[in-house]
């Protein structure tokens, strides 16, 4: 909460919307970690979901060339033609879809398209409903509420490798449902929606033509188990699906802030939202993203290979920690171990208490399941690791946790 206003500012008020706006707890925990580091504490951090690699050199050089080439001004709000064409081709080829450049809009990261989509397909205060995954990226729920829509959680089950039951989707749909948010590969669990899951979802949605789909596919190139499949590939789904992707995760470009979304009907609406908010994404970053998509992919493939190795390493190690059980994630760079037994064995009331004790007593930073929405009924307690960290850090961090558990088992 903000500190109370006093003196001559006492009459100033902050709106309920501003007061209640959610956040992304990874950054909250990161600030906590940084505070401990400033105090001289040695912390192994698994809390931030971003590649630990530098942006590939050819992409950096393209950004420098854009600066030296005078690419300093505004661009059209929808993005430069060269990037829209490259993104359309890349997204289309990898999904087997014919995406036109004019259907693609470039944003300052993929995250803004969550808000743009909700604001574009729901009306504030009209009781329009948005179904979204839990656990899930916290900005989904935050933006649903901020845009005056009704959040309707659908639970991802550990028993289904962190997918939801299709019949539960059918049960959640009402005449007020306007949007379904899907995320695959998934943050925070690393789960992926298989072809059979998506086929069942598409079959249900064909009976409910009023529902849009926001397909958050920012980790699409980091899918490790078989082919990547998008819900947009199924009959009747392409026109009603917003495909959201971007440069951040694939090419280690989180700070460059480049994302893109594709949908023919909503592209002009997204463009107006960008005009109203950011004006346009950074022109320098856009030219760097053109090189990221069109240039050599060796570095991106090497990063992907490293993530697979790190996934196998951390899952193997976590499954040796007393009280931990961890499924092998199918994509992204997150592990989501079940720590129900670990909480009981160490005397922790829940995953959040375990998280705090791991930070302050073991010097390891992770996130708790409550940072990603309400806990899934019957699924116990979980914590999230981002294994976008070196193998040495993974070994050191998990060994600290194992030592903590061995010292605290009751």
* Second CATH tier, the architecture of one domain: Alpha-Beta Complex
* Proportion of strand residues: 5-15%
Name of the CATH class of one domain: Alpha Beta
Largest sheet features: 7 strands, mixed
- If helices are DSSP runs of H or I spanning 4 or more residues, what is the number of helices? 14
**Terminal residue distance:** 37 Å
CATH topology-level fold name of one domain: Aspartate Aminotransferase, domain 1
- List SSEs in N-to-C order: HHEHHEHEHEHEHEEEHHHEHHEEEH
Count of strand segments: 12
Which blocks of ≥5 consecutive residues have pLDDT under 50? none
Indicate the radius of gyration in whole angstroms: 22 Å
- Name the helicity range: 25-40%
pLDDT averaged residue by residue: 95
Biggest sheet, spatial arrangement of strands: 2-8-7-6-5-3-4
Oligomer: single chain
Which class of secondary structure composition applies to the elements? alpha/beta
Overall, the morphology is globular
CATH-defined superfamily of one domain? Aspartate Aminotransferase, domain 1
Keyword list:
410 residues, alpha/beta, Aspartate Aminotransferase, domain 1, seven-stranded mixed sheet, three-stranded antiparallel sheet, 12% strand, globular
Describe what this molecule looks like in 3D.
The protein is of the alpha/beta class and 410 residues long. The protein has a domain at 7-41 and 299-408: Aspartate Aminotransferase, domain 1 (Alpha-Beta Complex). It contains 14 helices and twelve strands. It has helices spanning 16-20, 25-38, 57-68, 81-95, 112-121, 139-146, 166-172, 195-205, 267-276, 283-294, 298-318, 340-346, 351-362, 391-408, and strands at 44-45, 104-107, 129-134, 150-155, 177-183, 212-216, 241-246, 259-262, 334-335, 364-365, 367-368, 383-386. The strands form three sheets. The protein has a seven-stranded mixed beta sheet, with helices on both faces. α3 (57-68) runs antiparallel to α10. The protein starts with 15 loop residues before the first helix and ends with a helix. 47% of the residues are buried.
